[in-house]
Amino acid sequence: MTAIPGFTGDANPYAGGDPYADYRTADFPFARYADLADRQLGAAVVAANDEFFAQRENLLLPGPAVFDPERFGHKGKIMDGWETRRRRGSSAEHPWPDADDHDWALVRLGAPGVIRGIVVDTAHFRGNHPQAVSVEGASVPGSPSPGELLGNDVKWTTLVPRTPVGGHAANGFAVSVERRFTHLRVNQHPDGGIARLRVYGEVVPDPEWLAALGTFDVVALENGGRAEDASDLFYSPAANTIRPGRSRKMDDGWETRRRRDRGNDWIRYRLAARAEIRALEIDTAYLKGNSAGWAAVSVRDGANGENGDWREVLPRTRLQPDTNHRFVLPAPVVGTHARVDIHPDGASRACASSAP
Asked: pTM of this prediction?
């Protein structure tokens, strides 16, 4: 595996123009996984010891952090991130913070899972970023309060040891702990500001909950489904099609570029588990002049091998713009993977398979 670049030290002071022009970042191999700390999945920053300059909730906002050099409030510069006050020592004789002093925030993952990588983004925190960060994970059932998470009976596992980070940079860390986590504790040493937190991994839902539901969406991201590959990712990621809820605007879906050949576009999904599929949904909500014209769905049973035959369960069917299409299969079909073919190109949302 290619080593992940590390960034340290202050960035240059903002000199005007595009604030991202000197932003330090890299391609992280784990970014192909779902963001388990996505607010749309139900993630939240449930507590922090300090948020004097900028509130903790900013950590999980979608999209990159925004910088407005002219925006100030009664506490000082308003930053798009989580920022704590400057730590001080205990006395005039020792005005510096101790080596172990740090600030922390507790994060509830939107979907529990195995974490493959974490990005601590210090965008626009050029000289006020933390000197180092560390991240711990815990697996706690139910809906624990911040007080319960801070209790002595909760076991925290180190995912990212205390590591120096750079200002105005996407600081990425690969994680190799093969365990399911529900909560994180993000520490910044000794203080400072973090713009965004991204937690990439594989969703591992609660099997008891799924069993209690009876019939559920086996391709949904929150239930452990995954968009493995797609023919075209020009406008948007294929994973948009299996995120929670219905679209609220056009870019909530998956849209391909315009085809100028005789081919078609497709997405391949890995289902949450081997399942008996009974029904399908293909939603073109908010997609009007760019919705897919036709769609077909095929299923493959992984028990037959990785290269097993695809079985068509929905023949090529005309789709309507801005419409949720529901199809009950004539008979249940067992499979581990599903593929949606759209003809010839276009956009769609929330292709969902249902199973007992």
From this structure: 0.89
